[in-house]
Amino acid sequence: MEKISLTALARQELASARSAGSGRSAHTVYGGHEHALRQTLIALIEGHGLDEHESPGEATLHVIEGRVRLSNAEASWEGSPGDHLVIPRTRHRLDALADSAVLLTVVKPVGPHV
């Protein structure tokens, strides 16, 4: 069993994001290429974000700290601490409306057929 404090990790990644020119930082909490489940804590400084990109497949976003906006061509959703957003399976973007930390959870197929 492994235990990790997402609150402490969020503080650490926000500190890294504040010193990064991109205004963001990320840390894989669980998973990797050999796992179907992948969880990544992403820290974004207010005014920064992830530009429009393809959907990673089945995915969710849990807001740990701050305020974010998840949007696609049809709609946008704002999230605050404790909110759980289902990521649309279309091109979308994520913007930090305040210094924010989110937990991205993605399920991807693994194995020789992929």
Précis, in short:
With 114 residues, the protein is mostly beta strands. The protein has one helix at 6-19; strands at residues 24-30, 37-44, 49-53, 58-65, 68-71, 76-79, 84-86, 92-96, 100-107. The strands form two sheets. It has a five-stranded antiparallel sheet. Strands 3-8-5-6 form a four-stranded antiparallel sheet, with no helix packed on it.
Features:
114 residues; mainly beta; Jelly Rolls; five-stranded antiparallel sheet; four-stranded antiparallel sheet
Task: Estimate the helix proportion, in percent.
Answer: 10-25%
CATH class: Mainly Beta
Structural class call reads mainly beta
Structure summary, number of beta strands:
9
Q: What's the CATH topology label?
A: Jelly Rolls
Overall residue-averaged pLDDT value: 92
Rg from C-alpha positions?
14 Å
| Succession of helices and strands | HEEEEEEEEE
* Main β-sheet description: 5 strands, antiparallel
- Tally of distinct domains: 1
Kindly, what is the distance between the CA atoms of the first and last residues, rounded to a whole number of angstroms? 28 Å
Q: How would you classify the quaternary structure?
A: single chain
Strand order of the largest sheet: 1-2-9-4-7
By DSSP (H or I, 4+ residues per run), the number of helices equals 1
Coarse shape? globular
- CATH superfamily membership, which one? Jelly Rolls
Q: Per CATH, which architecture? A: Sandwich
Keywords: Dioxygenase, Oxidoreductase
InterPro entries: RmlC-like_jellyroll (IPR014710), RmlC_Cupin_sf (IPR011051)
Protein name: Quercetin dioxygenase-like cupin family protein
GO molecular function: dioxygenase activity
